[in-house]
């Protein structure tokens, strides 16, 4: 297995947290302090700090001291582009699933088609 695949898997593990995704989306608007991030996602400051530490160790965010405050920012704005692309993929998948749920198709056909969409692809 190549090194980039291993690194990608490690980053995806970090991104597997809905709270971390919320933080990334907040930081897409610009750098901010932990307290402001915590307020923006309705979480405690210690919890947000823990998530930021994990994301910082993974290289997803960077910290910069601004007086007494530490401001966090995205290390690479393309991370949000990747997240947005995945959201588009998921949106299309949900649309297809919604279309399968309409009563215009036969039950057996709908069940088989839904099973194919829900099953993870193997390549």
Task: Give a quick precis of the structure.
The chain contains six helices and three strands; from the N terminus they run ααβααββαα. The chain has about 120 residues and is mainly alpha-helical.
What is the makeup of the main sheet? Answer: 3 strands, antiparallel
User: What's the CATH C level of the largest domain?
Assistant: Mainly Alpha
What is the CATH H-level superfamily of the largest domain?
Answer: Winged helix-like DNA-binding domain superfamily/Winged helix DNA-binding domain
Number of helices: 6
Describe the strand arrangement of the main beta sheet, using strand numbers: 1-3-2
Number of strands: 3
Global morphology: globular
CATH fold type of the largest domain? Arc Repressor Mutant, subunit A
Q: Alpha-carbon distance between the termini?
A: 15 Å
CATH architecture type of the largest domain: Orthogonal Bundle
Order of helices and strands: HHEHHEEHH
User: How many domains make up the 3D coordinates?
Assistant: 2
Uncertain stretches:
none
Share of residues in strands: 5-15%
Sheet/helix structural class: mainly alpha
Indicate the percent of residues in helices.
55-70%
What integer is the average pLDDT? 88
Nearest-angstrom radius of gyration? 19 Å
């Amino acid at each position: 297995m190549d090194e980039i695949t291993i690194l990608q898997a490690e980053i995806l593990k970090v991104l597997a947290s809905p709270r971390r995704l919320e933080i990334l989306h907040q930081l897409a608007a610009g750098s901010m302090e932990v307290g402001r991030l915590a307020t923006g996602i309705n979480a405690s400051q210690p919890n947000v700090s823990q998530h930021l530490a994990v994301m910082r160790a993974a290289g997803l965010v960077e910290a910069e001291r601004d007086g007494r405050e530490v401001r966090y920012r995205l290390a690479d704005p393309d991370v949000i582009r990747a997240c947005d692309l995945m959201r588009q993929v998921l949106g299309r998948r949900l649309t297809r699933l919604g279309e399968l749920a309409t009563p215009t198709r036969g039950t057996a056909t709908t069940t088989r088609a839904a099973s194919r969409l829900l099953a993870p692809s193997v390549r």
